[in-house]
């Protein structure tokens, strides 16, 4: 019976202290971001290429919006053909 007691004496040293709430919150947020990225790129061979293509498309859309006339005509001109 007395053989078990010395083993339990050092058990308190093996316990990992609980991190403070801010650290825990940050770790949970990082883990959630990682899971979200993994599910987003599931089945994609080259996620970096997908990101580049997505950013390029966004830039093209943004550029298209800034260069289009603000008259609301959608870039079409109406005129007479006489």
Automatic annotation (TrEMBL):
Q: Does the keyword Lipoprotein apply?
A: yes
What's the superkingdom here? Eukaryota
Show the segment(s) annotated as Disordered.
1-82
Which biological process annotations from GO are given for this protein?
A: negative regulation of ERAD pathway; negative regulation of retrograde protein transport, ER to cytosol; negative regulation of VCP-NPL4-UFD1 AAA ATPase complex assembly; positive regulation of autophagy
One Pfam assignment = SVIP
Q: Where is the composition biased (Gly residues)?
A: 70-82
Basic and acidic residues bias (residue ranges) = 21-40, 48-62
Q: What is this protein called?
A: Small VCP interacting protein
Q: Source species, please?
A: Oncorhynchus mykiss (Rainbow trout)
Q: What is the lineage of its organism?
A: Eukaryota, Metazoa, Chordata, Craniata, Vertebrata
């Amino acid at each position: 019976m007395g053989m078990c007691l010395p083993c339990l004496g050092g058990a308190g040293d093996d316990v990992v202290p609980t991190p403070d709430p801010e650290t825990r919150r940050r770790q949970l947020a990082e883990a959630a971001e990682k899971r979200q990225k993994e599910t987003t790129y599931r089945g994609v061979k080259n996620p970096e290429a997908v990101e580049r293509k997505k950013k390029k498309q966004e830039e093209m859309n943004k550029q298209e919006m800034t260069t289009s006339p603000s008259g609301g005509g959608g870039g079409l001109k109406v005129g007479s053909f006489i």
